[in-house]
Amino acid sequence: MEAVIKTGGKQFYVKKGDIIEAEITSQDIGAEVIIDDVLLISDSTNVISDPTQLKSAKVKAKILSLVKGKKVKVFKFRRRQNSKTLNGHRQNYQKMEIISINK
Question: For residues 68 and 92, what is the distance between their CA atoms, to the nearest angstrom?
Fold first, then answer.
C-alpha cells in the first residue's frame, strides 16, 4: 500500500518501511507521529484520491533522528559599491520511518 502525504509544506510518496527526511514536527526521538494530511492512497487494485474518503486515512511514522540538510550559501554582491555579504543556512530535518498506512 502506498500513499501521498503532506507534511512540513512538502509532499512525499511513501510506502511502509520507507525513511523520509521531513521538516521538524516534534523534538522527541523515538516518538510516533500520526500524519492526517493524506492526499492519495493506492494499493494493487484501486486508487483513492477523494478527500471525503481520505478524512479517516492516517499514516503513522516514527522519528529516528534529527539531521541537518546541505549548506546553502547566500552571496549578495553589489557592484561598484564595495559591498558584499556571504551568509549560510542549514535546514533542520528529522528522519522518519513509515510504520503503517491506514484507510
Answer: 5
